[in-house]
Structure prediction request, 118 residues.
Amino acid sequence: QGPQGPKGDKGDTGKPGSCKKCGGHHGKGEKGDKGDKGQHGATPSARIVTSGQGLGVRSGPGTDHEKTDKIPNGTVVKLQCKVNGQTVDGNAIWYKLADGSGWIAARYAQNLNKIPVC
Prediction:
């Protein structure tokens, strides 16, 4: 292996507010949702992706907690935070719903942005 060659030119810095990683939407809020500030500052959310009719909402982070509701497949829900709970199909993460109504298994929810730890 030979010596390292000279360093190349630095690439274009891009337009102010653009983000190469996520497509340059910074500062652009999600329409119809006050408080959202684009992908990185957005309200944590996830889309329900079950193979069945919907996903059960639990009173705590595990299937041993009471089922309090059901969310239809494909629904986008707002989340407050995540915790480690009972493992469901290899995934121990549970999401707390933002409205405080309960918990859902992350195994059946596709997170749409960063979910903070509770």
User: Anything to note?
Assistant: Residues 38-41 form the longest helix (4 residues). The longest strand covers residues 76-88. The domain at 44-111 is CATH 2.30.30.40 (SH3 type barrels.). The beta strands are 45-48, 54-58, 67-72, 76-88, 91-97, 103-105, 109-111.
